[in-house]
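To whoever is on call:

I kicked off a structure prediction for a single chain this morning and the downstream step that reads the tokens threw a length-mismatch warning. I double-checked the sequence; it's 459 residues and nothing unusual in it as far as I can see. Pasting both halves so you can look.
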Amino acid sequence: METVKPRNSTVSGLFLISVMEIKPFKAFRFNKAVVGDVCKCIAPPYDVISPAQQNQLYKKSKYNIIRITKGKPTPSDDSRSNPYTRAAQYLNTWLEEGALKQDSTESIYAYIQDFELAGAQFKRLNFIALAKLEELGPPGPVRPHEQTFNSQMLDRLNLKRATSADFGLVFMLYEDQKKIADKIIENAAAQKPLLDCLDDQNVRHRLFAITAKNDISTITKIMNDKTCIIADGHHRYTTGLIYSKENSNPAAKYQMLAFANTRQDGLLVLASHRLVGNLGNFCLKKLIADLKEDFEITQLRFDSPDTKIQDKQKMLAQMKAEYKKDRNVLGIYAANTFHVAVLKDKRAMDSVAPNTSAAWRSLDVAVLHKLVLEKLLGIGEKDLASDNPPERVEYIKDTENAIDESVEMVDKGQKQIAFFMNAPKIHQIQMVADAGERLPQKSTYFYPKMYSGLTINKL
């Protein structure tokens, strides 16, 4: 794979090495003496919170970070009073009350997430630091991996302009076979945690301070020659870039980021499925016939609730088997029938996506978008890029009940067809990012999510 080499750089593995400047900071954190249970003050990232969950978080504590990261609008909102001005008011009040207190020592923060998935136990090791903001894409050290929605970026920019602070974490991936920072994080975990919380999904969030100068120096040095990929938080990172250019404060050139090594077992990426509806004259029989031009089709037609469960499991098992063979595969459900579609020849993507890299064309989600949604169902890039409420395509994260819930929505007539995906492999994400490209929006679901409010960076 060819990469563009900037001056004073080398190439290692899948990553183009360039300067990633990070440094420790004195975070503001919730003060137990004032807020009581700190675990009631943190929250998931703003963009995964439903209205019902938003209400629950509001009720948990008057100091819950949701009031800042995803404040409730009111009918009387105007330019002087709105969720962003109220966020600034909450921040200032909490600082005055001592609900938020700044640490006295500059630290890099070890952030460990313990969780279970499909019956297996995992531990993801992360560290939180300030990083100098860099333009996205090669030859720079920061690569986006996914398309974004403009309205969400404007929302985050308005919040940052109002508060001059970072509350949520931009999740960055880097590669280090020696796992140097991981060892420092594990050593830090021998201390008493600054925070130890169990969330509603039984994910344990633990935070520790790394204060030893030699440990901080080691981490900053190893990151100097790393290229990083944004896993989650594209909107927040881009917001930071824009804000840094319009703000004269030198501190605005840095943003609070969380980093995870791709060489650890606890880094998991899950799939994001697609539900499609509002298609005129949709006919499953015609779609399957058209699919046979490019795909090998297996039909699984059930005749009872028991065989429906069995056929779903057969579909998922075949999808997993094809995934291991590095073949492009889609699961399909419509009209009381499961199908498995396996791409016959990867060269079928060449004509429909001629201006993309081989890495991009190898993605299952690219195959779905180009050869199925666009070519056969008339759902083009403009429809897929819409950040309005879902009309034709809805994205479903691969949570525990995602497939059953998707099937139910089709059965009830709320959607016409469901497409089930395997998750992209980490190396595929790396290769697409290194090519200077982005995966289609909502292609990945990194689990678990990093919570907001653990550390706050105030400019």
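Update from on-call: the warning came from a stale cache, not from the record. Cleared it. Sanity check on the structure: The radius of gyration is 23 Å.
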